[in-house]
Structure prediction request, 319 residues.
Amino acid sequence: MNRSEEENVNLDLKKIRPIVKNALREDIGRGDITTGLLVPETKKMKAKIVVREPGIVAGIGVAEEVFKAVESLTIGKGRKGRGIEFKKIVEDGDQVKRGETLAEVRGGAQVVLTGERTALNFLQHLSGIATLTRKYTEAVKSTSPRGKAKIYDTRKTLPGLRYLEKYAVSCGGGYNHRMGLYDMVLIKDNHWWIAGARTREKVPGGWNLEEIREKIPKGMKVEVEVDNLRQLKRVLDMDVDIIMLDNMKLPILKKAVRMVKMARDRKGTKSPAIEVSGKINLKSIKQIAHLGVDRISVGEITHSARALDISLEIVDITT
Prediction:
């Protein structure tokens, strides 16, 4: 698979349904004992999903799929939950205020209650990622030159949820880095080490970029990570698409950015793109963006995003 670096994840129902069903099987197991004992099969209910704090929404469509999947999983066990209706009030990517209703759910009370936690888990987690991503994208907009730096995610995602988490990043205005190890060449520090360098400070002698280009699909991006100026000087002589400046202190980072820009000017091209990574946070990102880099990859937006406070409230119950 050869993905464009600007090709963000779109919500594909065929891809999210297996994720949703696995989550429900984990939660439901042999059945929702409490709901089955206390809630009659004939009970119908209307509920609304409400956000308790401001943020960016992501996962409305996933929540809808949860309730539909619960219905299909439980009908076979004798429950009368047919006819789940899910009405979206907002869309993914929308900015919402505290107290806003995100969606309404109607249908069998057993189905709604059984799916409640799983639906909210997805919605809270993904909206948390989108909200934090938006904070980063807004932080770089005010920087010069013209806030051109784009916020990218990483592979620091929860196992099994990468597709959804990267979708949430796009809802927050961020961009997706490689989806996995298969769709882009990214030569990192350990590759430098194993492929020929005697120490991490020395440049590698065990890999050849031209040979790599011959072995990968045409158009596949090649990115090289460097963590010091000696490595960078070596890489600037190579035909790479992106150079990742990793874990550099600001004074060294400034020198590195100047070196790449001077090399681009000599070649008369916009390549390689400059990406900065490593220990990025909301306090440091403006200084980095001011340097005029092209991309900033932030692990925090997926591995440490706080869940948005969202709840389900019962509006009406009928028999």
Summary: The longest helix spans residues 109-141.
